[in-house]
Specification:
Blueprint lengths: L2 E7 L1 H4 E2 L2 E2 L1 H18 L1 E7 L2 H9 L8 H23 L5 E6 L1 H5 L1 H16 L3 E6 L13 H10 L4 E6 L14 E2 L4 H5 L11 H14 L3 E6 L4 H6 L5 E3 L2 H4 L2
Parallel strand pairs: 1-4, 1-7, 4-6, 5-6, 7-9, 8-10
Antiparallel strand pairs: 2-3, 9-10
Length: 250
């Protein structure tokens, strides 16, 4: 029986000092293919990085502040982002691109079409690469892909959402990694400050994603991209797991 997972990869995880870490992308492609072939675990990827890639191509040293220029960077960088992951999965799997806006996610008919599109790719062994369509909807420029990844996990009834970042997990007051979170409390939210900020949305958007997954019976794992995906899934390395409510009722 197929096991489904959504893997969200932030731009800061694969773009270092304005350069793509192709080694990391290729390793992800290889490891996800291994999981499919050896354990029947199928993955859908939610990716980001179009804006920084577009900035490099267009010669911007600093991130623009006006929306039109940001959209220009996103549109130029989007094709580059897909090329990066094509390289990562070359020889392993065919990839497809699915660009979404909030309208797609709030319209019942379009939501159903998205769900069917994803399930068809899964049935054919195609790895779907999902990103917000920044060039169409200007509000996407200000937002993070964390909530999108959680909604996708909900649509396909995934077992887990794996958030790959540049930190080992959520740190407590002593700087130690919190292994499990059973409920998102005000104390837990206070831990999102300082060193726990990750990517565009920081830990705040990670909590928003976790609230979606936990409520819908999906575990969410926050872990460092430097570790093997299999180790993150099975807890053989540092990570933070947001436990779904169905586990807590057992």
């Amino acid at each position: 029986m197929k096991e489904l997972q959504v893997v969200k990869i932030g731009s800061s995880s694969i773009i270092k000092n304005n350069e793509v870490d192709y080694g990391a992308v290729k390793r992800i492609g290889y490891e996800l293919t291994q999981l499919k072939e050896e354990e029947n675990i199928y993955s859908i990827l939610v990716v980001s990085g179009a804006i920084p890639l577009g900035m490099k191509i267009l010669g911007y040293n600093r991130k623009p502040t006006d929306k039109i220029t940001l959209q220009r960077c996103a549109c130029v960088g989007q094709k580059e982002l897909m090329a990066v992951y094509d390289i990562g999965f070359k020889g392993h799997a065919i990839t497809s691109q699915l660009l979404l806006t909030y309208h797609n996610l709030s319209n019942k008919e379009e939501e159903k079409n998205v769900e069917q599109r994803l399930k068809d790719d899964i049935s054919q062994g195609i790895v779907t690469l999902i990103n917000y369509n920044d060039g169409v909807d200007m509000q996407e420029i200000k937002l993070d892909n964390d909530r999108l990844a959680a909604l996708i996990a909900k649509y396909i009834n995934a077992k887990r959402l794996l958030m790959l970042s540049s930190v080992d997990g959520l740190e407590d007051e002593k700087g130690e990694i919190t292994k499990e979170i059973r409920k998102i409390t005000p104390r837990i939210k206070r831990l999102c400050r300082g060193a726990n900020h990750i990517g565009t949305g920081g830990m705040t958007t990670k909590f928003e994603a976790a609230e979606i997954t936990m409520k819908n019976g999906i575990e969410m794992i926050l872990g460092n991209i430097k570790y093997k995906i299999r180790d993150l899934i099975y807890g053989n390395c540092p990570r933070t797991v947001f436990l779904p409510q169905k586990y807590l009722k057992r």
